[in-house]
Amino acid sequence: TTQRGGRNISQYQRNILEKEYEKCKCITNDNKERILLATGLELKQIKAWFQNRRTKEKKEQGR
């Protein structure tokens, strides 16, 4: 997935984000630091990913 700044999220990072998303659909103070450290992404990238993932899930459920 290409980011606006041209930075890509690797498959490894995406796997971490998906696992965290399965545990909790939103970013909490508890999981925020863990995700930041594990992925090396910026907080705004993580927040955007979670928001986009929730949107994707809503669209899939609507089908």
Describe this structure in words.
This protein is mainly α and 63 residues long. The protein has one domain (11-55): Orthogonal Bundle (Arc Repressor Mutant, subunit A). 68% of the residues lie in helices and 0% in strands. The chain is built from three helices and no strands. The protein has helices at residues 11-23, 29-39, 43-61. Helix 1 packs antiparallel against helix 2. It is globular. The termini are far apart.
CATH superfamily: Homeodomain-like
| CATH fold annotation | Arc Repressor Mutant, subunit A
Q: Helical amount among residues, as a percent range?
A: 55-70%
Task: Please give the count of helices.
Answer: 3
**DSSP strand content:** under 5%
Largest sheet: none
Overall SS class = mainly alpha
Query: Can you tell me the CATH architecture?
Result: Orthogonal Bundle
Number of strands: 0
- Mean pLDDT across the residues is 90
Shape, principal axes of CA atoms? globular
Could you spell the SSE succession in H and E letters?
HHH
Q: How many domains comprise the coordinates?
A: 1
Low-confidence stretches: none
What Rg do the Cα atoms give?
12 Å
CATH class: Mainly Alpha
Span between N and C termini?
A: 23 Å
GO cellular component, one term: nucleus
Pfam family, one: Homeodomain
GO molecular function, one term: DNA binding
Subcellular location: Nucleus
